[in-house]
Structures are given as structure tokens and as C-alpha cells.
Write a structure and sequence with these properties.
The protein is mainly α. It contains six helices and three strands; from the N terminus they run E-E-H-H-H-H-E-H-H. 55% of the residues lie in helices and 5% in strands. Strand 1 (2-4) and strand 2 (8-10) form a beta hairpin.
């Protein structure tokens, strides 16, 4: 869930984007991701030209490689599509406020607004104990490990970025 002070909330689903996979450069252009749309379009045109050249000039390996590229471009768009939208929102001044599990974007936005109203009510009500954190819709991994409140400025613990599978630490 992303929030901008003047533009409000924006929900971005997590995971593989079926729409980006199926329509790739059209999806990117529809979401104003012009650079990605251009790359995908040019990539498709180059792969189609290479496949046609491979077929016409009797280079089956070139044709097969081009067909593999035609298959991989939509997979790349589907796997990275949601992250591209998140990067675009952050460049526009949005900030990630929380992660919410919801059935739809509108449900997630409504839950974020309810949470914001709850936090305002708790902060305005002096009867609430100060050591109890406000209600949230989830905690990220770092918050669970170091018992910090969400969105705190507390640094992660020393072993947060440790790689136990690496030898010779």
C-alpha cells in the first residue's frame, strides 16, 4: 500500500502479473511505463525479425533462439511488472506505508484508511497506554525479529543480513 500526501492511496498487488505476461508492451504503455514499453516492443520486433531471418536463410538455430526470446520477454514482463509499478510510484513521491492482505485494491485502500483513522483515534485518546503499539495489519520480517514497532527508525539487528550458508564468516 503506497500513500502520497496529496494524491492519496495506491494499492499494488504482489507477485506475477498475468496482464503484463499476456499483453507485455501494451500493458507497460497503459501503465505509463514508457521505457519498459519501448524495450519490450523493440525486443519483440527484433526477435520476430530474427525468427523470420532464421527461417528464410535456413538458420534453424537463429530461429529457435529468436522464438525463445519471444517467449522470455513476456515472462520478464510478468515477473517484474508489479515491481516496475512500485518503482514508478516511489519516483512520483509515494511511500510504502504497509502491506495488507486483501481481495482487491479497493478493499486494501479501505483497510488502510480504517487503520489510519484508528491510529488518529488512538493518538488523540490519552487513555490508551503509551507502550502499546497501534493496531496494524501485519508486520514485516524485520519487525518480528527485533520487536520494533512498524515504521520505526530502529536499525536491524546485527545478524539481520547474515548469510549462514556462506562459509568462513
Amino acid at each position: 500500500m503506497y500513500h502520497h500526501k496529496s494524491k492519496g492511496y495506491q494499492a499494488v498487488p504482489v507477485g506475477f502479473s498475468i496482464a503484463a505476461f499476456v499483453t507485455s508492451f501494451i500493458w507497460a504503455a497503459a501503465n505509463s511505463l514508457w521505457g519498459k514499453a519501448f524495450l519490450l516492443f523493440v525486443g519483440f520486433m527484433m526477435m520476430l525479425a530474427a525468427a523470420a531471418a532464421g527461417a528464410l536463410l535456413d538458420f534453424p538455430l537463429l530461429a529457435l533462439c529468436a522464438l525463445a526470446g519471444i517467449v522470455l520477454l513476456p515472462l520478464w514482463a510478468g515477473a517484474q511488472g508489479q515491481q516496475w509499478i512500485c518503482d514508478k510510484l516511489e519516483s512520483q513521491g509515494y511511500r510504502l506505508v504497509k502491506r495488507i492482505n486483501a481481495e482487491s485494491a479497493s478493499n486494501a485502500i479501505n483497510a488502510a484508511k480504517r487503520s489510519e483513522k484508528q491510529q488518529e483515534t488512538v493518538s488523540n485518546n490519552k487513555a490508551t497506554p503509551q507502550n502499546k503499539p497501534a493496531a496494524t495489519f501485519g508486520r514485516d520480517f524485520r519487525d518480528i525479529r527485533d520487536n520494533a514497532s512498524p515504521n520505526s527508525n530502529q536499525p536491524p539487528p546485527q545478524d539481520f543480513n547474515a548469510r549462514p550458508w556462506k562459509k568462513g564468516r
